[in-house]
């Protein structure tokens, strides 16, 4: 078991738990022998699901947790009161170095709060941003921060820029990632107070490739690899991405079944259509890491199915192999931010 | 000429001026006899364009203006220095009640600044928001504010909510429009400082139909008719709408021409496809009004063609006939905001 990356997985979190979560875990261990998954949650329920599959038993372990944090429960309160919940137990595994990472499709707020108070931030990091990948016409960009830490200060955004650069370079493999700050125009004097104050500081940072402002219309074009913003704006961008995708796909589906002629046309284009639009699916990109913690927490969509869970687990392997947390720590000495 | 609504049109603004602008003006007067258009700009250029069409000469007038404010020029400086520009001359017509409205596809910043300092705000209105309509699966919603007045205060957002309601009810014809504030969750305690402070005040307002928070993913579903936010967030939403539309349509176009089979499929679905996606086109909805001024200023896209110009001119007629500015003034007495 030595040298394996250990990923705790919240078996009870999300709309499709535990079925799809366990399926994703089995899939992940079948794809990589470098990994060990610890499924955290109700043992009997997890065993029932596991009994459906064949897998290397040395790669999957169960840790029993009796409670579940549901969607809608108050994050801070529930993290404190449900000490035997799958999220809290999973986070403690990370905190105590019994696991390298936790993957969960559960209550977002609880993950954000728990990440900060149970796993804890790297010393010197002021805020742990949630940094999902968003699809673009060129590939993916990292949107940092989309968490719950609203009303950020310039120093936070500088740390986001640096952490985002480290992630994109080492996990996604983009050399010298282009960093931009979300703004309402490209000129340096544009923006709200936060952006106007942060912009010159980003420009001065020697160890990131800062390319200036990015207007929201250029996010889908892949104009930047790391898109820095405070969490309120990031959350709006992320959710509008989802909402617009749903609106367009819904409209398109209605067109394709609107008449016999359309249905015939749909048959002819369905295969390339699915291939091209696959990149917009959240399943393809795994979950969103919470960066800057003493260990890795990855949040997947509440609606995650096995594929997203599996991809998220494998993403943790790259994260750990590339020693991202160490690199973030080292960067704190380089930058006095 | 009595009782006609007079709309000044900046003949020199936008990528397609003066050709498409003049064409749009001619189209508008052909569609409504209730309207008079004053084309503002270089007389010779306007005359050249007008000579291509037949129209009722009583409905179109030219006012010569020798200067043009170009894209990229500094808004505040150029408004002050180019006193004989089509934008400044057009705005003075509105200020002096020689025109009821100005439509322009020109420099956005100059329109926002000029609106405030030349046309002037209604007494009691603290900020004049730019309020475009965005397409949704149900129709359109008003996104208020998308202008340049970032870092708004709660009192500003309350005025936006009220002005937006008046606009949607009277210009678009939606009874008791649903007003929501952009937030990162639906619970009242969610949000940044501005939203948390504004939410209870909106809830107390008796003469709007406040339905609470709206997450960005629900904007495209048409969950609310009036979407209140400060300008930085509004700008991000508006531009991401455009960017996502372009990404999606680009991907779809590539699919439809990817093979002979796809091209055949494309032929079968092209007609319903165009019909369904027409609603996402900015041309259909006319321009974005700058609300709360002593007269109407409507900003159309820089890339406006005749159809958008024509729709924007007709939109001004409804705005003026419905006495929107008066209704906004009256609302200031009802609400002590």
Automatic annotation (TrEMBL), chains A, B:
Alphabetic keyword roster: Acyltransferase, Cytoplasm, Lipid biosynthesis, Lipid metabolism, Phospholipid biosynthesis, Phospholipid metabolism, Transferase
Pathway(s) served: Lipid metabolism; phospholipid metabolism
EC main group: transferase
Pfam families: FA_synthesis
GO molecular-function term, one example from the UniProt record: phosphate:acyl-[acyl carrier protein] acyltransferase activity
Superkingdom assignment: Bacteria
InterPro entries: FA_synthesis (IPR003664), Phospholipid_synth_PlsX-like (IPR012281)
Assigned GO CC terms: cytoplasm
PANTHER family: FATTY ACID/PHOSPHOLIPID SYNTHESIS PROTEIN PLSX, PHOSPHATE ACYLTRANSFERASE
This protein's name: Phosphate acyltransferase
Gene (UniProt): plsX
Subunit note: Homodimer. Probably interacts with PlsY.
Organism for this UniProt entry: Parasporobacterium paucivorans DSM 15970
